[in-house]
């Protein structure tokens, strides 16, 4: 219930549709005419979504950090641990990244005919790790 309140107050619901549109446009710009049914290509085609997912996640992290600036002093006196507060505050950003990642994997499946496999998982790992790093950068810029 609390996570739903955080999600409602976050910038993530406002960013998810424009970011999904840009993910769609980026990934459709690199489509070959015939699906290759090659798992590595499917994983590598998700890299195109990185150009949209990373800035969207960083912008939401900066927004949420700026929103939390006024109550940051109250977070130091909380009975919760620092890590549980970080999880509580970062949940909307993680949900945004997960939604956009699943959308990118679905588009890669449509474009290539298969889900990522083999060495394509390395490219998919980059699409998870790099936006998470940009979320940290956005959090500190917004704060």
Mean pLDDT: 85
Unreliable stretches covering 5 or more consecutive residues: none
- Shape assignment: elongated
Q: β content, as a range? A: under 5%
Give the terminus-to-terminus CA distance.
26 Å
**SS-derived structural category:** mainly alpha
Radius of gyration: 17 Å
Residues in helices, as a percent range: over 70%
What's the story with the biggest beta sheet?
none
Number of strands: 0
Q: Give the topology string: H per helix, E per strand.
A: HHHHHHH
Number of helices: 7
Short structural summary:
The protein has 143 residues and is an all-alpha fold.
Description:
There is one protein chain. The protein has helices spanning 2-9, 12-28, 39-45, 50-68, 72-75, 82-112, 120-142. The longest helix has 31 residues, at 82-112. It has seven helices and no strands. By secondary structure, it is an all-alpha fold. Helix 2 packs antiparallel against helix 4, helix 2 packs parallel to helix 6 (82-112) and helix 6 crosses helix 7.
């Amino acid at each position: 219930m609390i996570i739903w309140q955080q999600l409602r107050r976050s910038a993530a619901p406002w960013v998810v549709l424009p970011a999904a549109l840009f993910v769609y446009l980026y990934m459709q710009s690199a489509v070959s005419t015939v699906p290759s049914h090659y798992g590595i290509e499917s994983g590598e085609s998700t890299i195109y979504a990185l150009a949209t997912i990373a800035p969207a996640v960083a912008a939401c992290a900066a927004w949420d950090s700026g929103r939390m600036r006024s109550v940051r002093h109250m977070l130091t006196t909380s009975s919760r641990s620092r890590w549980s507060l970080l999880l509580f505050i970062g949940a909307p950003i993680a949900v945004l990244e997960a939604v956009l990642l699943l959308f990118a994997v679905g588009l890669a499946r449509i474009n290539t005919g298969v889900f990522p496999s083999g060495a394509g998982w390395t490219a998919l790992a980059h699409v998870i790790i790099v936006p998470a790093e940009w979320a940290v950068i956005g959090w500190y810029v917004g704060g």
